[in-house]
Amino acid sequence: MHTAQLLQHISDLIGAKHxxxxxxxxxRYEEDATHQYQSTALAVVRPASTAEVATVVKLAHAAKxxxxxxxxxxxxxxxxxxxxxxQQIMLSLERMNQIRAIKTDSRMIIAExxxxxxxxxxAAAAHDLIFPLIFGARGSxxxxxxLSTNAGGSNVVRxxxxxxxxxxxxxxxxxxxxxxxxxxxxxDNTGYALKDLFIGAEGTLGIIxxxxxxxxxxxxxxxxxxxxxxxxxxxxxxxxxxxxxxxxAVEAFEYMPHNYTRRxxxxxxxxxxxxxxxxxxxxxxxxxxxxxxxxxxxADGSITIMNTLEQALGEYLASGLVxxxxxxxxxxxxxxxxxxxxxxxxxAVMREPRLLADVSVPLDCVQSFxxxxxxxxxxxxxxxxxxxxxxxxxxxxxxxxxxxxxxIRSAAQNKQLKDELITVVExxxxxxxxxxxxxxxxxxxxxxSMARRKDPVALSVMRSIKQALDPLNLMNPGKVLxxx
Length: 484
Ligand SMILES: Cc1cc2nc3c(=O)[nH]c(=O)nc-3n(C[C@H](O)[C@H](O)[C@H](O)COP(=O)(O)OP(=O)(O)OC[C@H]3O[C@@H](n4cnc5c(N)ncnc54)[C@H](O)[C@@H]3O)c2cc1C
What we know:
The chain is globular. The protein has 18 helices and 19 strands. The chain is an alpha+beta fold. The two termini are about 30 Å apart.
């Protein structure tokens, strides 16, 4: 089938106004959040139902035209890149934005793939519940994208990644069949874990159209603090202590070192440094009180969970494991603390050229990773500057380097140094038992790392799965798996 015929068929099916072929109409889908991967697509198609997605995929399959699924396009690894030859269809899920049901007694929400994360938050909040996946892109990213990247964010320490929040999935396979895995069950041992295969697959095995997601009780009070510590290992000590005191209710434990805070305050002069000046190691921590006992407002107006935190921090201050601490007294102060952490991506991309590495290591190896990189980095790029942050409670370091802050090298030299540096970052993480890719997916950005670092047998199994489910290589081709 000629591509013009294919697009005509799709237009007949979903309406011509949902098949965008003009460059101007395609533009907002073709540029991703990183501005590094500019696509030129054959068309952007916007189906509104699972049946429409299935028929579009069937038609594309018959015409052997590749499909790139697009959610909020906030991915950081080039997963929505549709090439530059105008031969791939971008399939936007944005019109599949219905919340099909909220079941409060069984604590779940059934939603379509195009529901924006913030909308899920609001829908849960209306029932005094939470959908606990939280990060800076929540106003744009969509459930299907979250599942396809197995997104993490700030609350993984308590609630797990997107995978842990998912009970069931609906997927359109490469040939257009609809696979119904919309289980609402907490236990369902019926063969291979197919749901998990599609989570984190970045659209390379099929298109997620809907999911059953878990909801959690809404914390009735938060204890939030910025803490200055002598080093990262002291922070880990504090985390474990707070987990014991709060019955594992630490929701976030976010590391911000001196250099990050310094650049943050330069960029946003109105923000207040919590300790007057940037400190070597600071952590934004938050405990969510879901039990009435912890959320109790006492006669003096204090809240039990905040008293618990204050007392623990007092003891740590006395022992020298904490150097200083500020507890948020109200929601305004809490929000101000979070704004300092959530500006991380904006700070990271302030300068080019840059390296954005997203590694994870075992929790007790974060300090070692950072110390080793402090030795390696100046040997590779003496004048480089780091603006790291970390989801410290998950051992996930966003190791960010501004490679040439003074603009002294050519683009080719910087590219060579960046390639050299990423292999050292990966090797350092791997030697500590870590991973080169924690939460942002592989896309095209980390395909070389995948070839270098992933177990070859695991890669071969992945290729077999891809071949079995998508023998024509039409589902988001060229992503995740290294080129053969
Ligand atoms: C400011 C900022 C902060 C961020 N913070 C975090 C963070 O803390 N933690 C984190 O994990 N990520 C973070 N991200 C990355 C990003 O927001 C997440 O990866 C998010 O889950 C992507 O969702 P999306 O809808 O934008 O997906 P997209 O970018 O549209 O797509 C991502 C990948 O999923 C595929 N895909 C999309 N929808 C579907 C579908 N329905 N079926 C099959 N495949 C599909 C795409 O083809 C692509 O490969 C951040 C990004 C920004 C810009």
